[in-house]
Design brief:
elongated; 12 helices; alpha/beta; 354 residues; five-stranded mixed sheet
Length: 354
C-alpha cells in the first residue's frame, strides 16, 4: 500500500504533468472559439461598378445600411474592378443592372469572404426582383474546391515542425547547438518535401509552381524548428506548450486559411499582417493564383524574418550554454536512456495535442 508521503508526491507529480494539457485545452478553446465562433463581416471591401448617378446612389445606400460591416467603394469600369480583385484589394465587385446584375469575385483569395460578399449583394438584387449572376475570376485548383487545402497543408507542416523540436531537444541533448541546428535544417527539409509531395502529386491541392511552394514550405518549417531549438535551452519542458501557443493557437487562427481577417475579431487581423502562418498561406495563394503578385514580397519577407528570429534564438542558446554549461540540456551520460525516452514520449504526446 502506498504511504501518505509517496501518495502526495505522486499526486503532485501527476498534477504538474496535467497542467500542460489543461493549459493547452484552455488556450485552444480561447483561440479557436474566439477566432471562428461567429464569422461576421467588418470592413469587407466591396465595390459598385459605374459612375452614373444611380450607381453612386447605390454605393452610398449600401454603405449607409451596412455601416462598419462593409467598405463600399465606387469603381469606374469593369476592367478596373477586375484588376482590383486580382490585386486582392477587393473581395467583390457588383455590376448593377435591372435585368441581369452581376457580382465579380475571386474565390482563390478566400472562398468564405467571397461567399459573404455574395450574400450581401443577393439581398440587393432580391429587393430589385432580379437574379444575381456570380462570376469567379480566380477559381481555386480542381483538387482544392473549397480553397482550404493550403490551410491543411499549413497544419501538416506545423505539426511536423514543432513536433520535431521535442525530439531534437531531448534525444539530441548531447549535441552542440550548432549540430542541433543542422539537424533542424535537415528536418525542415524533410517536412517541406513531405508537404509538397502530398499537396502536389498526391492530392493536387497544388497543381503548378511546385518549387516555389516548396521553398515557402521550407522557409516556414525552418523558422519554427530553429526557433524551437533555440527556445528549448531556456524553456525546457515548457517548449512544446510555447510552440503550440505561437504556431497553433495564434498561428492557425490568424492565417486566413479558413476565415480572412474581414470575418474575424480585430486581434486576428493584426496578427494576419506579420504572423508566419499567414505569410505561408497568403504567399502560396499569391504564387498559385495571383501570378506572384498580391503582396507576395511582403509575405516572403515575414517568413524570412521568422527564420531570422530562429537564428537569433539559436545564437542566444549557444551563448547561454557556453556560459552556463550546467544549465545546458543534460547529456545521455548524465541521465539514463530511460529518462531520455520518457522525456521524448512526454513531449511528443504534448506535441500532437492539436
Amino acid at each position: 500500500m502506498t504511504s501518505t508521503p509517496d501518495l502526495r508526491h505522486t499526486l503532485r507529480h501527476l498534477a504538474t504533468h496535467l497542467l500542460t494539457p489543461l493549459l493547452m485545452c484552455l488556450g485552444m478553446a480561447l483561440a479557436y472559439q474566439g477566432a471562428f465562433h461567429q464569422p461576421t463581416p467588418h470592413h469587407l471591401k466591396v465595390a459598385v461598378v459605374g459612375q452614373s448617378p444611380q450607381a453612386l446612389a447605390l454605393t452610398r445606400g449600401i454603405q449607409a445600411k451596412a455601416g462598419p460591416a462593409l467598405d463600399v467603394s465606387s469603381v469606374p469600369t469593369r476592367a478596373a474592378a477586375e484588376q482590383q480583385l486580382r490585386d486582392r484589394d477587393l473581395v467583390g465587385a457588383f455590376l448593377p443592372d435591372q435585368k441581369s446584375p452581376q457580382l465579380l469575385v475571386a474565390t482563390a483569395g478566400s472562398d468564405t469572404s467571397a461567399t459573404a460578399a455574395e450574400q450581401v449583394f443577393r439581398q440587393v438584387t432580391a429587393a430589385q426582383g432580379s437574379p444575381l449572376q456570380v462570376t469567379d475570376l480566380v477559381p481555386t485548383a480542381p483538387g482544392d474546391p473549397t480553397g482550404q487545402g493550403v490551410f491543411f497543408l499549413l497544419v501538416a507542416l506545423s505539426i511536423g515542425s514543432y513536433g520535431s523540436v521535442a525530439v531534437i531537444g531531448a534525444a539530441g541533448a548531447a549535441l552542440s547547438v550548432r549540430l542541433r541546428a543542422a539537424v533542424g535544417v535537415v528536418t525542415a527539409l524533410v517536412v517541406s518535401v513531405i508537404g509538397i509531395v502530398t499537396a502536389g502529386p498526391v492530392f493536387h491541392v497544388v497543381d503548378h509552381d511546385y518549387a516555389a511552394v516548396w521553398a515557402l514550405a521550407w522557409l516556414y518549417s525552418a523558422g519554427i524548428v530553429l526557433l524551437g531549438i533555440g527556445l528549448h535551452t531556456f524553456l525546457r519542458r515548457w517548449t512544446t506548450l510555447t510552440l503550440m501557443v505561437l504556431f497553433v493557437m495564434l498561428n492557425f487562427t490568424s492565417s486566413g486559411g479558413i476565415f480572412r481577417p474581414d470575418l474575424q475579431p480585430g486581434m486576428f487581423g493584426v496578427l494576419h499582417h506579420f504572423w508566419n502562418g499567414a505569410g505561408f498561406v497568403e504567399g502560396v495563394r499569391s504564387v498559385l493564383y495571383f501570378d506572384g503578385g498580391a503582396g507576395l514580397g511582403g509575405r516572403v519577407l515575414s517568413l524570412v524574418l521568422w527564420l531570422a528570429a530562429g537564428l537569433l534564438a539559436l545564437a542566444g542558446a549557444a551563448r547561454f550554454e557556453r556560459r552556463h554549461p550546467a544549465a545546458a540540456p543534460a547529456t545521455p551520460a548524465a541521465v539514463s536512456a530511460a529518462a531520455v525516452e520518457e522525456e521524448i514520449e512526454e513531449e511528443e504526446e504534448a506535441a500532437v495535442g492539436v
